[in-house]
Amino acid sequence: MCSSSSHIVATFTDPIASNSTVNNHLVVHKETGILYVGAVNKIYQLDPNLRLIAWNKTGPYKDSTECSGYLECPEKAQYQLTNNVNKALVVDYSRAKLIMCGSLYQGMCWILGLDNVSTTESEAVSEPIVANNESASTVAFIAPGPPTPPTSTVSESHVVSLIITDL
What we know:
With 167 residues, this protein is mostly beta strands. The protein has strands at 23-28, 35-39, 42-46, 52-57, 61-63, 80-82, 86-92, 97-102, 109-113, 123-124, 137-144, 158-165.
């Protein structure tokens, strides 16, 4: 009789974390085999053998329920240090980007490069999109846009669709 651990090929343990990290989402790049892991307050980029390539801190940061999004807050907003629970993680192959969404800032998404998630060159989606609390569910996917784009200057159309359900 084999023990269940004999089937484990590789494991990943965060070398920086002092306690266990909750990993929420995993996506594998279909061409490179690179793994992207969305966790509470972090995102990891791992090679196919689960060796750490890069990581980035996504929280905790000061946030307020009085804010309507990233840095859009009333003057007297009450802030508190808030965890960023990863809610969605999707590879956009047409733009070679990683879309990462979390509960922080009312459910903001960030667009990162696929080469290195630790770079500070990220772009915030202009408005909150995903569920902004720990327990609500979010489903994310990328689908082709309409077959005939509305203008002739657009050669390819893609739509990021996010469906939010509260369970």
